[in-house]
Amino acid sequence: DPKMAALAGGMAVRVTALVAGRSIAQKVAYGINRTVENRFRYFLKQAAPTTAVFQPALRYSSSTSKLVETTDEPDVLYKKLVLLCKGHEEAVLDSYEQFVTMAAKELQLNLEKIHRPHRVYDRITLLKSVHIHKKARVQYEIRTHFRVFHFKHLTGSTANVFLEYVQRNLPEGVAMEVKKTAVEKLPDELKPPGTQSESAPAEASQ
Prior knowledge:
Layout: H1 2-63, E1 77-87, H2 90-106, E2 111-115, E3 120-127, E4 137-155, H3 156-168, E5 174-183, H4 199-205
Antiparallel strand pairs: 1-4, 1-5, 2-4, 3-4
């Protein structure tokens, strides 16, 4: 029968196409697996030398502690360290006050007191109209708030580290003024004659 023959031929073509499709899918899957394996082997080869290079870096970092220079010069001593902070937002100053207090507590600094001076008002009065209505005026007010931190008995290195940390975290719109009171040795010219250092007579005898 020609109809049955055509139907059988169509089914054979479909089966052949399905078989060919399966073979193509198998080939694609096999190719993907080979690509993944090759890339995995490549990454393993690349990762092997990095571990060997990373070990001397650790040894170098451990040896950098020997490169720190030490000097016999005495450190600077500060009797007082006063930080004056001023800004136009009181809430910002309150938050910064808590930050400075916590930083001083973590560094074990001697925070003597925190002073809050009275705010300063700057008022500017302007005319609403430039040419007429002299009595119609508007007034602008600028308020400046202050916080003063008093520290005592600090070394120079500690003060430098603390000031760098505090000034880097200074919020926007806040200005800071630093006043240091250093402790210095009294010169021999100002000492009484009986309390002069022994080095001067020794040099004179030579």
